[in-house]
Amino acid sequence: MDFWPEFLASSWGKEFVAGGFGGIAGVISGYPLDSIRVRQQNSKCGSAFRVFRNVVATEGPLSLYRGMAAPLASVTFQNAMVFQIYATLSRAFDRDIPASDPPSYKGVALGGTVAGAIQSLIISPVELVKIQLQLQSKNHKYNNQTITLKGPVDVTRRIFRQEGWRGVYRGLAITVLRDAHSHGLYFWAYEYTKEQLHPGCRKNGQESFQTMLIAGGLAGAVSWISCYPLDVVKTRLQAQSHSKSAKYNGIVDCFRQSVREDGHGVLWRGVGTTVGRAFLVNGAIFTAYETALRFLFNNNNNNHTNVPSENAL
Questions:
Q1: Burial class (CB in 10 A: 0-12, 13-18, 19+), 111
Q2: Fewest CB within 10 angstroms: 40, 86, 117, 259, which?
Q3: 32 SS3 class
Q4: Backbone angles phi, psi at 68, to 5 degrees
Q5: C-beta separation of 7 from 303 below 8 A
């Protein structure tokens, strides 16, 4: 009975809850655009509007939310872990900076890079399942059999039964390559942008909602542009149904075949959709995250707890 009050009274507890709110806001706000992005990356169907119109006409608008249960179920823990690891490591890389000051931009970038690499262990199998569901039509061809995938659990069972843990973690290497550097740039861009928009806010924590939305949106857009070709390769690798009948034999082979068949432009197919989604999603993530932290710390202070108010990042 005393677990939640004690948990929420700790800095770790506040980070966990705030990270969960941020992640949920991001998934809900951007999932339809993410479904369009995945379909663009894995086909030659053209513009985002054409993909949207075709999907809605043939499968219905709710198909744009297909596979959302997997990322939504994992997003609380994933986001909490990323933000907490980042907050801890961003200071660990710069021990000379007083606790009352914000971490340096170098610490921010390094902390974000390590956090991104670690979170790949969670996000890689989740995105594998999500992509398999997003790309299925009403009758999905799986291992030369026409079936209907019923949801994340059904997809995971089928992959594990046929390929084991190796299949569940298909695409892990490319996910680490994508997320490590992009998360370092992501957190650096957010901290730098919000300080430029609202000087002094990194120390006093008084940035406005507008600052959080714009800084978070720009950080998301910049980080996605930096890793987009890697994401295209990851999508194509994870879209394959079975390793024995796979078209691509690894990261380099996928890159070479994709460029040979479709030209270098394939590595940027769907980037417009992704940047638009990234701005929306990451503006929502940082705004929800920072707002939740403020509420939790203010509520904590109003209840006269002994935990001092502090900035999250």
A1: buried
A2: 259
A3: helix
A4: -70, -25
A5: no
Q: Does a structural domain hold residue 300? A: no
Please list, in sequence order, all residues whose beta carbon lies within 8 angstroms of the beta carbon of residue 7, skipping any fewer than 6 positions away. Answer: 13, 16
233-274 pLDDT per residue, tens: 999 999 886 655 678 889 999 999 999 999 999 999 889 888
Q: Report the pLDDT value the prediction gives residue 211, as an integer from 0 to 100.
A: 94
Whether 244 is covered by a domain: the verdict is: yes
308 inside domain: no
Tell me which residue range forms the domain holding 167.
3-140+148-295
What is the C-alpha separation between 248 and 236, in angstroms, rounded? 8
Asked whether the beta carbons of 78 and 90 are under 8 A apart, the reply is no
Domain count, the chain: 1
* pTM, entire model: 0.80
Distance CA 86, CA 78 (A): 12
The pair of three-digit structure tokens given for residue 95, joined into one six-digit string: 């021990």
CA distances from 239 to 31, 161, 282, 301 (A): 17, 17, 25, 49
Residue 237 lies in a domain: yes
Can you give the pLDDT at residue 253? Answer: 95
Residue 78 token pair: 């994933």
> Among 14, 22, 18, which Cα is nearest to 186's?
22
